[in-house]
Amino acid sequence: MNFAEELKTLKKQVQSKEYLNVDPSSFDKIIISGMGGSGIVGNIFSEIYDKKPVTVVSDYHIPSFADNRTLFIAVSYSGNTEETISALELAKKSGCRVAAITSGGQIANSVDNKVLIPGGLQPRSALGYMLMPLVNTFLKPSHQEIDKTAAMIDAIDEDNRDMESLAREIWDGKFIPVILGFSPFRWVAYRWKTQFNENSKILAFSNYFPELNHNETMPYRGTYRKDEFKFIVVGHPENIKIEERIKWTSSLTSTPFQRVDVRGKYTLDTLFGLIHKGDYLTYHLARFLNVDPTDVSLIEELKKKLNH
Amino acid sequence: MNFAEELKTLKKQVQSKEYLNVDPSSFDKIIISGMGGSGIVGNIFSEIYDKKPVTVVSDYHIPSFADNRTLFIAVSYSGNTEETISALELAKKSGCRVAAITSGGQIANSVDNKVLIPGGLQPRSALGYMLMPLVNTFLKPSHQEIDKTAAMIDAIDEDNRDMESLAREIWDGKFIPVILGFSPFRWVAYRWKTQFNENSKILAFSNYFPELNHNETMPYRGTYRKDEFKFIVVGHPENIKIEERIKWTSSLTSTPFQRVDVRGKYTLDTLFGLIHKGDYLTYHLARFLNVDPTDVSLIEELKKKLNH
Question: Quick check: B284 and B167 in contact, CB under 8 A?
Fold first, then answer.
């Protein structure tokens, strides 16, 4: 499957009905472990679910509060991520209730309570397969919400010329993107950053309002190399104070912010709409730069070096 | 007080004996709210304390799990940060046990259980005053650990020519710093980033191992503008796997990593040593760039616009 075909599987992914079999009364806190394209699943989930504390671990270890009142969820597309396997083993030793979302590997073999998702994609192209089991388990979206989300993705699959134009602009100017988000889409900004890194093979960075107004804003007014960066705001905030911050930050620093907006009816359709725009933007940029968006051979080489 | 004098107050700050009066049996989770130079206090603390879930909020709202078994701590140097005031009001409404670390303002007036710290500094220069009450309350460091930490800071105050050289190098090349950290010093890397932003008025970014090996590493091998960035690794990891990752990432991508290291005897002296190196680096860079490290007038202008 080529990368454009992978992107088109997202519509089907968000229609997944899979969920984890968990008893909410058996835990009072959640730890979600994962790295990279799998790890962001926990981060995005932690912004849209806040009924219990969710701690996201992107490392080898887990916090010492992990106990038998903790639900530990390992998210690893391959099922063989060494950091996630290490965290999972520690979670078992700590008596956590463990669950997993994976397509196979060591993690599928060692966890009973799991959602097995289809393999064969790049992990970053399987975000829907990995996120929906958490959404279905803890947020129980309506049929209408799912339908709207699928329709949103479909519309972007059909017409993403706006993202092609923006990609051309970034390519023309050899810009470094700085993606600016806000709650509950702070991690969408980070997702875009990582998609630029992996698909387009360019450096990119992300931040969010209002935190960036306390530090990163300072050099926006004028510093060396600022014009080599492209500032992109993803989404339209519900909080009017955040919109005011976006407006005034741009105005007081004479920094044009390119806005990429998606207006869904629900959180879920807006969330996946914003994510999918970034998928196409970074895919088109890869095309212009003549790099293979699926190629992550460097990451594979690194894994081999670490295992020898 | 000029900025160099502000930096020299850190030694005294870490010797603070202040602590919060809290009953550990009265809460099972902690929310710490703060922005910018005050907000990072919660983030740094969340990496060195993990006996209970710590959720750091850098926004107007708080998670819905906040209840009467939640300890909410507002950290705001001025005591007038609008996001933190908003979060504090929500925490009171949710029945949280509230506490504060502040030098005054609205927050001092509205919270009984608080540590009042000395005013008159830039918030980012008061990190020790804000962090130590949390450390003293929850981690209870030994006299030896505090003495070593003060001695570490003293040594850096006395001789920071290594940071002056590195600042000169960044200034010569007009580099954009990318600061790479790892647990438990991931937020030290972010602190450096924000110090570059506020003190030196240049763009800077941060990331951490092992997460960056799953995405950001890809363009390190070769992309446009990469040579305009300066990659700096802060610290020496205890986990050998992280050190292997640093070594191989640099080697496989032909990317020189500048290492800034501090070898303390404890977590606390290493932590503050790494932080203080970044303070001097960004201060020296401001001198070379001929900008005032204390000036954050743009952030003040923005606050005024938002309040009218």
Answer: yes
pLDDT at B307: 86
Judge residue B8's burial from the number of C-beta atoms within 10 Å of its C-beta, 0-12 exposed, 13-18 middle, 19 or more buried: middle
Q: Which residues of B touch A214 (CB under 8 A)?
A: 35-37, 39, 194, 299
How many alpha carbons lie under 13 Å from residue B168 in its C-beta half-sphere?
6
A17 has pLDDT over 90:
yes
Cα distance between residue B231 and residue B93, in whole Å: 45
Q: What is the pLDDT of residues B134-151, one digit of tens each?
A: 999 999 999 999 999 999
Structure tokens at B225: 């503008």
What is the per-residue pLDDT for B164? 98
Give residues with Cβ within 8 angstroms of A274, minimum separation 6.
Answer: A185, A188, A234, A235, A260, A262
Interchain pair B58, A210: CB under 8 A: yes
pLDDT at B41: 98
Strand positions, DSSP E, B152-214? 176-181, 205-208
What pLDDT does residue A20 have?
Answer: 98
- Please list the ranges in chain B whose pLDDT falls under 50: none
Q: What's the pTM?
A: 0.97
A106-124: pLDDT as tens digits: 999 999 999 999 999 999 9
Q: What is the mean pLDDT of chain B?
A: 97
User: How many H-runs (helices) and E-runs (strands) does chain B carry?
Assistant: 12, 9
Q: Which amino acid, one-letter code, is at A36?
A: G
Which residues partner with B102 through β-bridges?
B76, B116
Nearest to A218 among B58, B197, B241 (CB): B197
- Tell me if the bond preceding B210 is cis, omega within 30° of 0: yes
Other C-beta atoms within 10 Å of B21: how many? 10
- The answer to whether the CB atoms of B197 and A183 lie below 8 A apart is no
**The domains spanning B3-140 and B144-289 adopt the same CATH topology:** yes
Active site residue B214: yes
Q: Which amino acid is at B146?
A: I
What pLDDT shows up at residue A308? 78
A3-140 maps to CATH 3.40.50.80: no
Task: Convert the pLDDT of each residue in A233-269 to its tens digit.
Answer: 999 999 999 999 999 999 999 999 999 999 999 999 9
- Minimal Cβ distance to B306: which of A58, A176, A245: A245
* CA distances (Å), origin A264, targets A22, A138, A147: 30, 21, 12
- The answer, yes or no, to whether residue A307 has pLDDT greater than 90, is no
Pairing of strands B29-33, A97-102: unpaired
Peptide bond before residue A210 is cis, with ω within 30 degrees of 0: yes
Q: Do B223 and A201 touch (CB under 8 A)?
A: yes
In the predicted structure, residue A34 carries a pLDDT above the cut 90? yes
With b for 16 or more beta-carbon neighbours within 10 A and e for fewer, the A18-38 pattern comes to: eebebeeeebbbbbbbbbbbb
Structural class in CATH, domain B144-289: alpha beta
Q: Token match 């391959």: residue?
A: A78
Contact B83, B59 (CB under 8 A): yes
Domain residue extents for chain B: 3-140, 144-289
Residue A222's pLDDT band, with cuts at 50, 70 and 90, is confident
Q: Report how far residue B274's alpha carbon sits from residue B262's, in angstroms, rounded to the nearest whole number.
A: 6
Q: Which of A30, A175, A203 to mutate to test the interface with B (most CBs of B within 10 A)?
A: A203
